[in-house]
Amino acid sequence: MTTKPARRADELRAEINLTRAELGETMQELAGRMDVPSRMREAYRKVSARAKDSPAPWVLLAGAAAAFGGAVTLMVVGRRSE
User: Fold this and answer.
1) Element of type H or E holding 72
2) CA 14 to chain centre
3) What's the first-to-final CA gap in the chain, in angstroms?
4) Cα separation of 9 and 48, whole Å?
5) Are 69 and 63 in contact (CB under 8 A)?
6) What is the pLDDT, as a whole number, of residue 66?
7) What is the structure's pLDDT at 2?
8) What global pTM score does this model have?
9) From CA 30, how far away is CA 69, in angstroms rounded?
10) Alpha-carbon gap, residue 63 to 81, rounded angstroms
């Protein structure tokens, strides 16, 4: 039978080991967040895969460009008529 101090020491060791494991995971996550080039490559890969699967981004981009072109045209025409 183990004594209370020995049991408490075992509990502390287990808690320390768990804390070390959690700290290691946190450090790996932070290192991944700090690796900007890898994150940019991953984001590019995801966006390009999504764009290949769906024409919606291109349609939205074309619509935004048309709206911008229309707004610029209206501003130019409005200034000329003044």
Assistant:
1) helix 56-80
2) 34
3) 98
4) 54
5) no
6) 92
7) 58
8) 0.42
9) 43
10) 27
Distance CA 65, CA 57 (A): 12
Beta carbons of 11 and 18 less than 8 angstroms apart: no
Round to whole Å and give the CA distance between 40 and 26: 21
Amino acid at 6: A
| Spatial distance between the Cα atoms of 36 and 39, rounded to a whole number of angstroms | 5
Closest CA to 66 of 76, 74, 55, 78: 74
Tokens of residue 70, six digits: 């229309």
Using an 8 Å Cβ cutoff, are 54 and 47 in contact?
no
Q: What is the pLDDT along the chain (82 residues), one digit of tens a residue?
A: 457 788 899 999 999 999 999 999 999 999 988 888 888 898 889 888 877 777 676 778 888 999 999 899 888 887 777 6
Place of tokens 């981009």: 61
Q: Which two tokens stand for residue 65?
A: 């460009």
